[in-house]
Design goal:
The chain is mainly alpha-helical and 313 residues long. The chain has one domain (35-299). It has helices at 43-59, 62-77, 92-119, 134-162, 176-207, 212-225, 235-251, 255-271, 275-299, and strands spanning 21-24, 29-32. The chain has a two-stranded antiparallel sheet. The N and C termini lie far apart (54 Å).
Length: 313
């Protein structure tokens, strides 16, 4: 026996599902709520989400993780000496081609994530994209930049320097060709890592009813896995990954993390050619993000509890 999905005239209409954004007409202020995804109880849907997640992670980060482990093994075998800094020793062209293949695999994973969340009816707003929140996203760039990028990576770098730990790299961007690869890689990494590891993986783990502690642990482990080529110098990545997941669980907006990730990697690529140009680029970005933060407070005074940029946050 089937039930009629359409209620008869005059019947009570059930309330809409909880959403993460609403407008308070009494105070005329926009409110943004960080609401975790509800656990999925239907067995078939849980299995479907599980297989989808494994498929996505098979495209990214699995290939990048295997490449990172191979690079780390090469460093260990050579006595922690990197002859030329290339993923494939003495083969710059093959290294560049392999990097582009990794980029393509990662972008296909990000595209699949967007397709899966749209197909399931959740939409891209489920992972913190879209939703007519561009002003809010731009206002969040500055807090995310400080709390998830600058502070954790600076602390991690200080630890690495104080302990004199070696830090390895798998690509050399000393030529114009490699500089282009670095810029492409910065954009690709910022988009796919945040969409796949931060937005999608966190949501699927929440839907499976995982605790916050395990979500943070798994998401950080996945993000660190494809950075293992740094060797002992991976500590800044661990702190950055942890801060990113914790902050995302609070604000539930993905675009600020994408922007900050891309800008950080672009700065690193520019610094290989000119430290002063990298500093100027970073200063310009910081001023622009600070203006966006103050503009939001002017448009919507007290409307959203933006994270305070301090260590206590």
């Amino acid at each position: 026996m089937t039930t009629n999905p359409f209620p008869p005239p005059g019947a009570a209409v059930p309330p809409p599902p909880a959403v993460d954004c609403s407008f308070d007409t009494a105070s005329s202020r926009l409110k943004h709520r960080a609401i975790p995804a509800r656990p999925v109880t239907e067995p078939a849907l849980r299995r479907l989400f599980g297989w989808e997640t494994w498929l996505v992670l098979g495209l990214f980060p699995l290939p990048a993780t295997l490449a990172a482990l191979a690079a780390l093994a090469s460093h260990i075998a050579s006595g922690f000496a990197a002859p030329d800094g290339l993923l494939i020793p003495n083969e710059p062209a093959l290294t560049a081609a392999f990097n582009m293949a990794l980029f393509a695999s990662g972008l296909s994973a990000a595209a699949m994530v967007l397709y899966l969340v749209v197909r399931s009816g959740e939409g891209i707003t489920a992972i913190g994209l879209g939703g007519h929140r561009l002003r809010l996203d731009l206002a969040l760039v500055m807090p995310v930049w400080l709390l998830a990028q600058v502070i954790p990576q600076s602390v991690g770098a200080s630890v690495v320097r104080s302990l004199s730990l070696p830090t390895f790299h798998v690509s050399s961007f000393g030529t114009p060709d490699y500089f282009v690869v670095a810029l492409v890689g910065a954009f690709v990494a910022g988009v796919l890592e945040e969409i796949v590891v931060l937005g999608y993986l966190v949501r699927r783990l929440e839907q499976r009813g995982w605790s916050v502690q395990w979500i943070v642990t798994v998401a950080v482990a996945v993000r660190v896995s494809y950075h293992l080529y740094y060797g002992p110098g991976v500590i800044p990545i661990v702190l950055w990954a942890t801060a990113s997941v914790l902050l995302y669980l609070r604000i539930r907006r993905l675009l600020p993390f994408i922007i900050c990730h891309v800008v950080w990697d672009v700065r690193v690529g520019i610094a290989d050619h000119s430290v002063s140009a990298s500093f100027a680029f970073g200063a310009l970005f910081f001023v622009a993000s600070l203006v966006a933060w103050f503009k939001w407070r002017k448009w919507h005074p007290g409307a959203y509890p933006l994270p305070v940029p301090s260590l206590g946050s």
